[in-house]
Amino acid sequence: LSAALEPVLRASPPGAVVDCCGYTVEGAAAAARVLADVPRYVYVSSISAYRDWPPGPVPDEDAPTFGPDAPPTEYGPMKAQSERVLGAVLGARLLSARAGLIVGPGDRTQRLTSWLHRIATQERVVVPASGNATPVAFVDVRDLAAWLVAAAGADWSG
Hints:
The chain is an alpha/beta fold. It has helices spanning 2-11, 25-34, 75-90, 113-121, 141-153, and strands at residues 17-19, 41-44, 94-97, 101-103, 138-140. The protein has a three-stranded parallel beta sheet with strand order 1-2-3, with helices on both faces. The protein has a two-stranded parallel sheet with strand order 4-5.
């Protein structure tokens, strides 16, 4: 990462970074080292960083996240630990966006579109039992991207 970004950082240091590819604690540590001096760092974390999710809803951003002793090989604990690693270096310049289920163009998971496609194309569709009342919240990737760019230009942290 250092070698890849060195020419860019030398030529024109960024005013903000939106990190939408941080997927390992090691990656967060590398980003923190290389980008330690950026004025704003917006990290796309995950609702999975919350220790008690699912089921939802998450009451607010102060809900407990996975602690440092949780296995960072699992997705939720990894995102929570990555937030801590970035926060230790960036402090109040870090904003962690704990998005819910992201859907929209380019979504390879098909979390929402598989259901919509089945309902639109099949005469009968098997669905979960009526007793399943687990709430879910989707966010369109385009809305999230616009919010992340706005957040990078704002003085938000946490």
